């Protein structure tokens, strides 16, 4: 997205369903409940939706399955699958479609029942041919190797990684919607079961059920809905690889490029951002993205997160809902970065509500640090 | 595969014969991996095959933790070969936890999942 599209679209509804365990429900059931929740939030009906942006972990044509399930016949559809970043990426295509008049009400939606269905990551994606023979555990081995390289090059410590999980839990403890709200110390993270060195099970995101949805309209009618509109000021993507063995520099993600272009489109800089919502599939993600998005210098992410600096009361509010590490992680978390950013701006965050948030950042990650998408959201005051 | 002509077939046939062959672009001279019909660096399509030196260094590494009854812990790593390409593999002949970044390793054709595959062992000093 360029400055031409700054503020041209707005989020007027958000919703979610099935957080934690959605017993007896299919992934599409959770998807549909999320859609209804977001449309209810916007004061709209399913019959108003004429743009659908959706992907799921099941099937090769999930957007078609979703439209069929919902009983709608969208005239604009986007099912681009870039992993967990897809839903942040849809902010760009929804804005383009709305602005071009290809649709009037865009619904971004996702749902999963991976916890109650199997208790592990469910994916229709096949392991890459030149990696599969070595049995990497997908996706943790990839992130573990990125963490190992970051530790090697910059002296990042396991304690610093652990502090990311501790901060996420501290936010989650105030959020009644979060799945894990018990106390969590640095020692708990370090002493937890090692699953892929240097990451323990507490360095890894949750496996939960859950779905989320976002309703978007053109900015010119965004003030006609019950909730305060949240404008998309900038959004940008960059993709660098698919297989982790093809990642050029294991310590630098394409968030550097996606972030720079999103900030340029929005006309703001990292120091302006009041709430930062990052896709924290693993503790190393938060460190990498804080560096690559410009909140600190490359290599300084470990020190940046240390000792509660991104926890409540710290220097920068990061993952204020508890993130994928402690709030919810139903296979793909990207949509929840946007929902939490929007709710912080609207003033109805489920956990700690920060004061007077006008600017928030949502960052999606897909694949194995492969696809990076950054969005800057703003209140009416930022137009 | 006597009539192997595709990039993947050529690579796999060499492995079956106990050889590690790497694709190199005739236009820009750079190696690439995995095998494909074009050079990912300059996008040229004239690709020739060359025996790998077998010399490499561990670029990054992890231990996949697994219960002993399921086969125990094992190594997964990414090795950078002298030719400048990287590949996922594992280092054998050393405990998974003793494999460190920058360790010098030597390639050999071993077996993974019942198929011939490029594996590594610590380089002899």
Automatic annotation (TrEMBL), chain A:
Species per Swiss-Prot/TrEMBL record: Tritonibacter horizontis
EC top class named in words: transferase
MF terms (GO), sorted A to Z: acetyl-CoA C-acyltransferase activity
Pfam family, one: Thiolase_C_1
Limits of the Thiolase C-terminal domain: 237-378
UniProt-recorded name of the protein: 3-ketoacyl-CoA thiolase
Keyword entries, A-Z: Acyltransferase, Transferase
SUPFAM superfamilies in the cross-refs: Thiolase-like
CDD domains documented for this protein: SCP-x_thiolase (cd00829)
Domain of life: Bacteria
UniProt cross-references to InterPro entries, sorted A to Z: Thiolase (IPR002155), Thiolase-like (IPR016039), Thiolase_C_2 (IPR055140)
Presence of the UniProt keyword Transferase in the record: yes
Keyword Transport (UniProt): no
EC annotation from Swiss-Prot or TrEMBL: 2.3.1.16
From TrEMBL, chain B:
Domain ChsH2 rubredoxin-like zinc ribbon residue range list: 14-46
InterPro entries recorded: ChsH2_C, ChsH2_Znr, NA-bd_OB-fold, Thioester_dehydratase-like
Annotated ranges, domain ChsH2 C-terminal OB-fold: 49-107
Gene3D superfamilies named among the record's database cross-references: 6.10.30.10
The name this protein goes by in its record: DUF35 domain-containing protein
């Amino acid at each position: 997205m360029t400055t031409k599209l700054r503020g041209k679209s707005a989020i007027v509804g958000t919703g979610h369903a099935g957080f934690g365990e959605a017993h007896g429900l299919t992934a599409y059931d959770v998807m549909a409940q999320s859609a209804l929740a977001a449309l209810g939030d916007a004061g709209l009906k399913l019959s108003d939706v004429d743009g659908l942006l959706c992907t799921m972990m099941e099937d090769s044509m999930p957007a078609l399955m979703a439209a069929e399930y919902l009983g709608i016949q969208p005239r604009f559809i986007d099912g681009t699958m870039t992993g967990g970043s897809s839903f942040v990426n849809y902010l760009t295509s929804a804005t383009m479609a709305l602005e071009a008049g290809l649709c009037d009400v865009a619904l971004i939606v996702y749902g999963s029942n991976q916890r109650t269905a199997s208790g592990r990551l469910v994916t229709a994606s096949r392991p890459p041919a030149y990696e599969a023979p070595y049995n990497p555990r997908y996706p943790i081995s990839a992130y573990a190797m990125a963490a190992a390289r970051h530790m090697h090059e910059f002296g990042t410590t396991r304690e610093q990684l652990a502090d990311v999980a501790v901060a996420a839990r501290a936010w989650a403890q105030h959020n009644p919607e979060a799945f894990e709200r018990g106390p969590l110390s640095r020692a708990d993270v370090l002493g937890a079961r090692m699953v892929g060195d240097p990451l323990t099970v507490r360095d890894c995101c949750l496996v939960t059920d859950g779905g989320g949805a976002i309703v978007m309209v053109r900015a010119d009618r965004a003030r006609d809905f019950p909730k305060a509109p949240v404008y998309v000021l900038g959004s940008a993507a960059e993709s660098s690889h698919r297989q982790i063995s093809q990642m050029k520099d294991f310590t630098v993600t394409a968030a550097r490029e996606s972030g720079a272009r999103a900030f340029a489109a929005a006309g703001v800089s990292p120091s302006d951002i009041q709430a930062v919502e990052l896709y924290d599939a693993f503790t190393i993600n938060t460190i990498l993205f804080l560096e690559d998005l410009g909140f600190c210098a490359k290599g300084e992410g470990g020190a940046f997160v240390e000792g509660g600096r991104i926890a409540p009361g710290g220097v920068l509010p990061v993952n204020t809902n508890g993130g994928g590490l402690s709030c919810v992680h139903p296979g793909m978390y990207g949509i929840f970065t946007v929902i939490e950013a929007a709710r912080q701006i609207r003033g109805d965050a489920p956990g700690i509500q920060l004061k007077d948030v006008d600017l928030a950042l949502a960052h999606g990650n897909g694949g194995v640090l492969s696809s990076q998408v950054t969005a800057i959201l703003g209140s009416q005051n930022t137009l | 595969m006597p009539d192997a002509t595709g990039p993947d077939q050529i690579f796999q046939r060499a492995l079956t014969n106990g050889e590690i062959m790497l694709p190199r672009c005739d236009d820009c001279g750079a190696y690439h991996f995995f095998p494909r019909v074009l050079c990912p660096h300059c996008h040229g399509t004239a690709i020739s095959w060359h025996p790998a030196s077998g010399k490499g260094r561990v670029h990054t590494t992890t231990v996949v933790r697994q219960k002993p009854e399921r086969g125990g812990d094992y190594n997964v790593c990414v090795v950078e070969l002298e030719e400048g390409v990287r590949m996922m593999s594992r280092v054998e002949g050393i405990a998974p936890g003793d494999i460190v970044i920058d360790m010098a390793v030597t390639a050999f054709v071993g077996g993974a999942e019942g198929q011939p595959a490029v594996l590594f062992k610590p380089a002899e000093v």
